[in-house]
């Protein structure tokens, strides 16, 4: 019953966001209430449960994004992001920049939580895109795909580690098999999907000459 309730909640959330274009935050709240009712939770406790869940998540992310933004700006002001961008461009060339970003994101994704890896890698992606004069999404999609695959398939990330513990699986074998599964997933969801996205949404792949919000790259 719990799995069925979860499945119904996921489908309901996607329908609200994709088909009816309901605000994402509102959709999450409505879906949370629906899932809670399906699981038999006391209606009087639903509001408190949602409040606690949202508060706990935002509290954790606030610290990550706050300090992550500071580190990203320090790296930029110190010239580190420019150095990384130039090194990647010189080593891989403009045609293979996606591969460089995938490798870097995959390695970072194995050791850091998804949101932390995102904060760490985004300034590098911005710098590389600006320096190489390629669209941000051209590199950003591959970055997100690599981080997501590492988060979902590779221990010591929480989800795959929890699955291995629950099933009594060998962590080492799970890591090896996870890499085998993650690599094709990254290729399909990263570079291949980017080519498809460029055909259907070319306006999203505009080359930017500057990014004021990112600050001056020194």
TrEMBL record:
The record's subcellular locations are: Cell membrane
Membrane topology for this entry?
Multi-pass membrane protein
Specify where it is mainly localized: membrane
Q: Which GO terms describe its cellular component?
A: plasma membrane
Q: What does the UniProt keyword field contain? A: Cell membrane, Membrane, Transmembrane, Transmembrane helix, Transport
Does the record's keyword annotation contain Lipid metabolism?
no
Give the stretches traversing the membrane. 7-40, 52-76, 97-130, 136-154, 175-193
What family does this belong to? Belongs to the GntP permease family.
Which named protein is this? H+ gluconate symporter related permease
Q: Origin organism of this chain?
A: Paucilactobacillus suebicus DSM 5007 = KCTC 3549
Recall the taxonomic lineage recorded for the source organism: Bacteria, Bacillati, Bacillota, Bacilli, Lactobacillales
């Amino acid at each position: 019953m719990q799995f069925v309730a979860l499945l119904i909640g996921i489908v309901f959330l996607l329908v609200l966001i994709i088909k009816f274009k309901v605000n994402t935050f509102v959709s999450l709240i409505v879906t949370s209430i629906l899932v809670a009712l399906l699981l038999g939770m006391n209606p009087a406790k639903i509001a408190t449960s949602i409040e606690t869940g949202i508060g706990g998540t935002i509290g954790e992310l606030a610290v990550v994004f706050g300090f992550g933004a500071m580190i990203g700006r320090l790296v930029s002001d110190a010239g580190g992001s420019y150095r990384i961008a130039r090194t990647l461009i010189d080593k891989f060339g403009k045609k293979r920049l996606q591969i460089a970003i995938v490798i870097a994101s995959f390695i970072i994704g194995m050791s850091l939580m998804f949101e932390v890896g995102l904060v760490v890698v985004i300034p590098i992606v911005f710098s590389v895109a600006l320096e190489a004069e390629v669209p941000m999404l051209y590199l950003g999609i591959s970055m997100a795909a690599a981080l997501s695959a590492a988060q979902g398939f590779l221990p010591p990330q929480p989800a795959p580690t929890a699955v291995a513990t629950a099933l009594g699986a060998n962590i080492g074998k799970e890591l090896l098999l996870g890499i085998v599964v993650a690599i094709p997933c990254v290729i399909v969801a990263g570079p291949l999907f980017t080519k498809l996205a460029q055909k259907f949404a070319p306006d999203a792949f505009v080359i930017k000459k500057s990014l004021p919000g990112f600050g001056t790259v020194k």
